[in-house]
Amino acid sequence: MSNQQRFPEQFLWGGATAANQLEGATNEGGKGPNIADVLPGGKQRIQILTQPGFDFKPDTEKYHYPNHEAIDFYHRYKEDIALFAEMGFKAFRLSIAWSRIFPKGDEEEPNQEGIDFYHRVFDELIKYNIEPVVTISHYEMPLHLVTEYGGWRNRKVIKFFERYVTAIFTAYKDKVKYWMTFNEINSALVMPIMSLGFSKLEDPKANEQAVFQGFHHQFVASSLATKIGHEIIPESEIGCMIIYTPVYPYDCHPDNVLDALEKEQLFNYFCTDVHVRGEYPSFINRYFKEHGIEVAMEDGDLELIKEYPVDYIALSYYMSRTEKADQSDVETASGNIVSGVKNPHLEASDWGWEIDPVGLRISLKQLYDRYQVPLFVVENGLGAYDKVEADGTIQDDYRIDYLREHISAIGDAIEDGVDVMGYTSWGCIDLVSASTGEYSKRYGFIYVDKHDDGSGTMERKKKASFDWYKKVIETNGEEL
């Protein structure tokens, strides 16, 4: 069977971004501060965010804050979208910055300047027949909801989120069909700060209690968003979004197989089960009992979650992970928020993320076998150091190789019978890394002349991968 037959005719080829990583203009258009605005740039970011006690106060003498300027998409969106159109994008995944619409988060009425900005962006996409795919909350919670309410621990935030989704569904009902509620919702199991809006607590038991309470409030909010979205935009498709990392046991020792299974259940399936099946999975009951977790629920919560599950599963896939019950005698590997044991069969990126295209096929098969709903690969890509050659070109053949193998794995999964809606490569234009706050960790088909020391012209340049991906889309995956 040829590649062309593998990918459906309406397959959504494109790229993915997040507002806080590319828009910049942090104090323009009536936007209020959000979580990303107070995250320091540099390799120390991930360590700061995974330790207890982050105070959400910027320290400009000690750190720099690249998200404030990012790559200035706020002013350059027409230029960037024209480049996406030149590649042939069918879809562009972006997020709406919640604090552009509700600067503090708890206002009664939205900020019209923010509403108008995304109207202009969506109009530009529609001009080129590019479908907007919109993440409603992508690590961009208004800072006021964090500092005054404690983030998603506080049930009051559900009402503020309901007001926000009602405003954006109403505003963009004729322009946006594809939505997803919370970006990488399961990341909060490791790092609650970006998605749940509170710093990890000193007491591990209290931290877990807070995380699962925050999850419950997000599950209710997601179901409300699905309900409201379908009422305001009957043709809309609203998905959840998770990090997916298939978990391999270190070896065939039953203890390691069980350890891998339990870690996979908690990280990959807990949130997804609630979103898609509409109920808490049975395996979580023992976990709650053993960890002393009691989730406060109100009457009607479980009924709402059951009645309004999501329409599809969106996922980020960067790597698999290998697990061993006792890791005292093995080398560990870093990764996208989660880490595991080093896999001797895999190579790693410049940032130590293990590269496993077969793992993407495994992931898609696992998810589809479990849920039988459409899947959408909305993040996948290679963060790497790119060099501008003397002649001005950027020869990123390593990125082409990475993407070729992963797209081929998606084709194989489709042949396996998996329903895959589309593929949006992460960071289709260079942007600020979420995990490290670096410009130098580049993912894009388009190079942006901006550097970790703050220098650069913001000039856009096509990399070698630009024309390669254009051909992939043009041939609907036939030529990889």
Mind sketching the topology for me?
Elements: H1 3-6, E1 12-16, H2 19-22, H3 45-50, H4 73-87, E2 91-95, H5 98-101, H6 112-127, E3 131-137, H7 143-147, H8 156-171, E4 178-182, H9 192-196, H10 204-232, E5 237-243, E6 247-249, H11 254-277, H12 283-291, H13 301-307, E7 312-316, E8 321-323, E9 332-333, E10 340-341, H14 357-371, E11 375-379, H15 397-415, E12 420-426, E13 446-448, E14 460-462, H16 464-474
Parallel strand pairs: 1-2, 1-12, 2-3, 3-4, 4-5, 5-7, 6-8, 7-11, 11-12
Antiparallel strand pairs: 9-10, 13-14
Family: Belongs to the glycosyl hydrolase 1 family.
Keywords: Glycosidase, Hydrolase
InterPro entries: GH, GH_1_N_CS, Glyco_hydro_1, Glyco_hydro_1_AS
Q: What share of residues are in beta strands?
A: 5-15%
Query: What structural class results from the helix and strand content?
Result: alpha/beta
Architecture per CATH nomenclature, i.e. the level-2 architecture: Alpha-Beta Barrel
Rg calc: 21 Å
Write down the CATH topology: TIM Barrel
User: Helical region count?
Assistant: 16
Fold and architecture overview:
- One of its GO terms (molecular function) is hydrolase activity.
- It is a single chain.
- By secondary structure, this protein is an alpha/beta fold.
- The chain has a single domain (3-474), classed as Glycosidases (TIM Barrel, Alpha-Beta Barrel).
- It is built from 16 helices and 14 strands.
- It has an 8-stranded parallel β-barrel, surrounded by 5 helices. Strands 6-8 form a two-stranded parallel sheet.
- α14 packs parallel to α15 (397-415).
- The two termini are 15 Å apart.
